[in-house]
Structure formats: C-alpha cells, structure tokens
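Follow-up to my post from last week.
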Amino acid sequence: MEPILKVEGLTKLFPVKKQKLLEERRFVHAVEDVSFEVYQGGTLGIVGESGSGKSTLARAILALTPVTSGSVFYQGEDITNFRVGAAGKRRLRSELQMVFQDPYASLNPRMKIGEAIVEPMLINGQAKTRAEAREKACHLLETVGLRPEVYDRFPYEFSGGQRQRIGIVRALSVNPKLLFCDESVSALDVSVQAQILNLFNELKERFHLTYVFIGHDLAVIRYISDQILVMYLGKIMEIAPYDQLFGEHTHPYTQALVSAVPEPSTAGRSQRILLEGDIPSPVNPPRGCRFCNRCFQAEEICRQEEPQMIKTGERHWIRCHFAKPAH
Amino acid sequence: MLRFLLRRLGRGVLTIFVSVTLVFFIVRAMPSDPVALMISPQMTEEAQQALIQAYGLDKPISVQYILYMKELLHGNLGTSFAKRIPVTEYLAQKLPWTLLLLAAVMVIVILIGIPTGLLAAAHKGRLADRVISVIVTMGISVFIPFMAFLLLFIFSFRLGVSPTGGAYTPPKAQGMAYYLDVARHLVLPAVTLSITNLANAVLYTRNSMIDVLREDYIRTAYSKGNSRGRVLRVHALKNALIPTVTVIGMQIGFMVGGATVTETIFSWPGVGRLVYDSVNALDYPSLQGAFLLMAVAIVVMSFLTDIVVAWLDPRIKLGE
Amino acid sequence: MATIVEFKNYSMGFRDDDGTVYNLLDRISFRVEEGKALGVVGESGCGKSMTSLSMMRLLPDGAVVQGGEILMEGKNILDMSGQEMQALRGNKLSMIFQEPMTALNPVLTIGQQIGEILTLHHPELKKQEVRSRVLEALEEVGIAHPETRIDQYPHEFSGGMRQRVMIAMAVINHPALLIADEPTTALDVTIQAQILDVMRRLKKASGGLMVITHNLGVVAEICEEVVVMYAGQAIERGTLKAIFDNPIHPYTQGLMASVPTIRSEKKPLYTIPGTVPTVYDFVPGCRFADRCQHCGERCMKEVPPMRQAGEDHLVQCWRSDDR
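User reply:
Got it. Predicted complex:
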C-alpha cells in the first residue's frame, strides 16, 4: 500500500544572524534528516520537548516554511514546498489542514464564527454559493457538538474547548484528507481535553481522516496515535508502534521521557530515570549522537559518531548505537 | 566593545553628515537674499564685491556646499555674516549660557519629575495620581510663549521679584554677587523650559513604573517579605527608569541646540537666541553651526543613553 | 502531628467595576500538616491560585475577603497587620510561582535576589555569611558551578535552572509552609522530572508543602494529602490514597477518568459534559450540579455539607451512598 504521506530526509536549517564579520555561518538545526511514512487512516504522533523541531517539521511539510533539503510526497506525488502549480497548490491547501493550539489566535476577532468557516470553503470551491456554504458549516458545527446558532456569534464569546471545536470545523470545512494537529489539546482543561480527544477519534472514522498529532504530552500523544515518532533536537530518535514504547527495547531518550511523565496513580513507580542537565541549544547540537551528553547509556562511540536509524522490529526504528537490529 | 564604539562612531558621523547637508540646502531655500541685508548703500562697489566674494556668495550653491564641507573637515564653520567673527567663536560665547539653562532644567526634571512620576504610579488611580495626571496633561499641552509671558507678567511686572530678561544685570558684578544675579535671571527661563520636559518625564516614569509594578517579579518580591517601599526602591525603580533615561537623554540632546522661543522671550544669550538672531539676519553660517551643534549633541547623548541603559539593564549587551 | 495551616470556611470574591461582589472561593476548609504535602487540584478558574494568594495575603486589587479564617500555627493571618505579614512572608511562609521566566527580577543578580530573602529576615547576617549560605542553597538545588552562577543574571539561566533558583530562594529560610503554584507547568517533561525530584528532596527542609496544580500526576508524585477544588468550592479532601483510589465526588471521579495516562487503553475517554462555569454563572447550590449525572433538585439550591466518607476522607456531596 502506498503511504498517504511520505517524508524523506527532510531538513530545515534557519541561519543565525552573524555576530562577527568573519564568523562562520551558523544554523539552527531545527529539523534534520527526518524520514517517515503515514498510511491512510493512521495517526502518527510526533512527540518532543522544546527545541525538538516538531512544530517546524509540520510547517515544513505544509510549505509554511521553505524546506532546506529533502522531499515530501503526498499520495505518491512530490509536493516539496508545494511546487505543484496553482491548481495543485489549491488542492493541497484544502486536503492538508492544520489545527493549532489556540484557534482563537487564528480567528479574526471582528469576524463572525460562521464567516470564518465559510470563507475558506468559498475560496477553495467546496461550496458554490454562500447559502450552500452556510448550510454545510451549520451541519459541521452540529457534528462537533456546537449548536448551529453559534454561526452568528463572535470568537470572544467562546470558551477554550468551544474555540477548539470551531478550529476543527474550520479545518474540516474544506474536506481535508490529512489533518495536522499541533498541540491541539494542550491549552485545554483536563475534562475538556478528553472531550476533544474523543471528538478527534470520532471524526477520524466519520470523515476517513489521517492524523499527524504533534505535542509534548506523551500520554496524550500515545493515546491518540498508533505510531509514535520521538524527536530530540531536530532528529528522530525513535519511531515505534504505540504499544511498544515501554521497556528496554526502546531508545534511552524514550525511556527517560516515559519515566518522566508523572502518573496519576498511587501505585509506586519503578526506578525513575532522571536526565541530567538542560536540553542543548539547537544552534550548537552535540557532536555524535544528539542525545549523548544527557544519555545514561552513552559511551565513547556516542560522542564520536552519529548513529543511524536501525530497524528493530515491525514498524519500529531506533537511532542508537546499542539498538538491536531485527532478524 | 571596540566594535560597538566603531559602529556607533560610524553611525554618528553619517547622521551628522546627512543633517549638515540638509540644513545647508534648507537654509539657502529661505526666500531672502543675505547680500541685501549685509550691504549698506554707503559701501563702494568694490567693497561690496569684496564682501560677497569673501563669503563665497558669488559661487553656485553646489560649489559653496563643497567648500563648506571642506572647511568643516578642518574644524572651520565659517564666519558669521552678521557678527563678522568665526562661527565657532560665536557659538562658544553662547553655548555656556545654554548649558547653564539646560543644567538647571535637568536638575528640576530629575529632582521633581522622576519622584513625582513614581509617586503617581504608587498611588495609581487614587487622588494623588489623578491630580498629577491633570497637571501633567496641562504641562504637555501648554503653549510655551503664553506661559513665558504669563510668568514675566506676574513675577517681573506685577511682583517685581524677577528681572525681565538677560542673563545678568549690567554692569557685570564681581564674585558671589554675580553668581546670585545670574541665578535670579535663570529662574524664569528655567521654569518655563522645564514645564514640557517635566511633564514628559513624569508621564514616562509613571507609565513605565505602572507597567513594572504589574510584573511577576514584583509579586515575587512581596512574597519574600519586602515592604512596599523596598519593593518600589529595589525591585521596581531600576526597571522603571530604563525608558525614562532614554527620553531624558534625547531631551538633553535637543536642548543643546537651544530653546529658541524661551531664550528669545527672556533675552537669554544662549544658542537658541543665536538661532533667532541668525534667522533674522539670514546669517547662514551661524545657523548651520547651531544645527551642527545640535546634531552632534543628539548623537553624543544617544550614545551616552545607550551606555547608561546597558548599565541599568544586564540583558542588553553593547555591541549586539 | 501539628497543623501548620488551616483554612476554616474561608470565602473571598471580586468586586466588579460597578461595585457588585462576585463570590469565588466558597467556604473552603482544609489543613496542611507538618511534614506533609497537600495537593490542591483543580481546573482553570477553580480558584486554586486565589487560594495560594490568599494564604500569602497577596490578593490582587478588587479581591474581597468575605469570611472565615486562615490559621497559621493557630493565629488568624487575616487579622495580622501589614508588618506582621511582611515578617511572615519569605520567612515562615514562602512561595514558588508558575512562570520561572518572569518571576525573577531581570536587573538583579541571582545572588542579590536569594541573598535578599536572607538579609530581610536575618539583618544580623554578615555579607560573607549571606554569600556562603546562598552558595550552599544553589548547590542544594542542583545548580552546577554556584560560584560563577551566583553573580549571573536571570536571563543567563534556562527555565529549569530559574525554577531551581526560585526553589533555593523559597526554602533558604526553612519556611513552616512552602507554597508551590504550578511549579512545573511551564517546563519540559524531563526538566519537570528534575524539579519534582528537587522538591521531593527539599520537602523536609520546610514544615509543610502546599502544591497547587492541575496535573494529577504531579500530585501523585509528591503529595500525601489532596484537596479537590471545583469552581471555588473544596469538594473533596483526604489522603492521596483515599482520593485517587476511591474518589467519591462525581467531579473527582470524572476528573480521574478523563485523563489519558501513559499506559491507558485505547478506549474512549470518560468525559464530563459541559465546561467549567465562570464566576458570573455560579449556582447557589453545588457548583458542579449542572454537569453532574447524579444531580438532584437539592443540589442546585443548597451547598452540601462536608461529610466524613471514611477515615481521612471528606466529601461535599448530597449523595449519601458511596457510588
């Protein structure tokens, strides 16, 4: 089966402003050599801490920031930087949608909710007339659990959870196939977050969507995804099926991440892995393995040589010198 | 640090060059002929021609400009049309008086303006703040000549406690008596000139203090057991002064160029008065000299301001 | 076991621009015991931050205390003079705030900021003593090279390091009560783990700890006692075990069930319908009533009394049987 989204060796470097005239040109290694595939109907979770490049990765795929090198394929077609002609670009702009952390920031405060939803539908040709668009928008509002009356209200009248529902309606209004959700539930209260996560799962079935879910909360990402991509300082550390995130057969960083998540239970926890130090700056990533200076298993080779992605099992890759390859 | 100095120097020279050039042409765009003013009918034809040539007024403007810039590089600002003395000398006579006035204004602004701004911020929304805000608004919007004449009328004509103009009563007194006499003459122009500057300083200090008092670290300071006074003094003041310092620095720069209106009304013999006289006499070189002085002062003050701000705020590193 | 702090039917609210007072905290009661950590849990708008600021008597303008007592070692702090409070703050009562990036003064060095809290309450200390105690404190919270770090400014520290500085500052006078308001919310998860580790270690340096958070995991990590807040009411409290293993209030049950955990199964999450009400739409009775599946007529009208639901377990709900 052909993947709906395939990313190959994607790299995004941001130049750093030079301090001295004769200084060597330096770059923020935001995303480096990232490759993965997402299949129709799947959910890929991308998890990482600050500086991991997870949001830049999504923006680079969606051509919101130009790619430095590497390629992006959508349904087999090379769409890197959306260099596909005007018609193709319009199709991509509707089939690939993004839901942000705070949809309020992307809504015009003086524009009625309905207008904000209808506008992209008319631009992208999902509706011929305003009346048709309105009907469709109201239907979608009901689908996500909002009363159609909200159509004529303004963004400030809504709570965080409701705004996120509106953000989702806006994304869904143009018949997307692939939805990128960047920290889409992070700002919400726990009880509302559960509602929205359930909603995402329902919509996926109903509209045959594929998700790329980006976030810092491993528990949430794991819950919603079937494949998890763990990023650290711009590089993939591990790609693993959601149920294989635990135990020794994972990347040391994943182990530390799993161990760092505080669990809301009274059962005593197993030995905690505490990483030392801070996340290094992506301007100056360590030599060798990106994780070497905080890794509890690091040896000399890790500081000298960058490890390759090693396939350790079915749909499971680890970037570590000590990973055991699958037979 | 050296890189910072060099870059600021380069920028300063460029600023001065541009302003000198602009002033040169703007002055010459005035709709009058200086020659007509300089020459009296009694002069012989030869004498007239000699005078015109001596000041280079017979040459085209572009040539005059090049000559002026060339002389400028040698520190020669030309000769005053009106006074027939070098402009540098003319400015040197007037500058001390302007600096004296400036110093008096700054003392008032700093000693009264900053504390008043802080007081208003500390009592935000309460009576003291409202009274101060009303006065500040009046201070900013007051028409300076009107204010000057009002002060003159009350203190000089009605009460007779202040001299009506000049910097001292001729003949010049000796020793302490002279200084006291100058001080008496200084009061009215200094007060007049302070009004707008003071109002601005109060406003800036008040607003930046109010912003600072909303910061999280102020709450942290209270949570440590600091008294209100100590929070204001130790935690808020330094942060709040950063924008005020910038504003005051710029004000000083402008004022070196003289306060034309105030100095003229009070016949204060400073650079502002020089500008007024030079405009009347179409004294191009003196006007240019005064504006050059102002440009240099602004460049120097903005440099000094940056250094003071960097000293107040450790997040700012010079040269970055 | 001594009680360090007790909230007794404490109520507070806000005065609107037109003078109307809206109640926020409604007769909340709980205790912090010596040597124990109490977790105050709730979603946004539940009043947990107002609880900590009430304890510090640092409520924002417009806040009004409406009744009750806050007892610190037996004395009601609401009756204390400004000077008495100053002597308490930073000494017997200290606080760590949520935003390490903005909670430190940008123009003072770390050493000056930590040193200040010492000299304020121990003016007799000599300069050299202050410095060496600050160095010790920095070392204790895991800051490497304290001799250089002490003279640096906040912008030279990462978020995690700044939070360590905040902790060093808060515990240096060995407070009777340490309040931590969302101490790790702004941090990355691996850094959060470090900070929780520091806090667990230093818990002993203070008499009692009050952790304000929305994160149930953080509570489980460092607290022994829990109070659950909802819309300004303290609806359930007890030991960590009682609350987490046997939640009784429908809101607590819903909250526990709706959090995906790192090992949770892939089935739909439990959800509480609706959203947290704002101060303007509080009902006179139980404020959770309109979202509650067990809501009865009485619930909307009358606030239920706090009743014993087990040993070390209290709940404020009209339902008499436990589930």
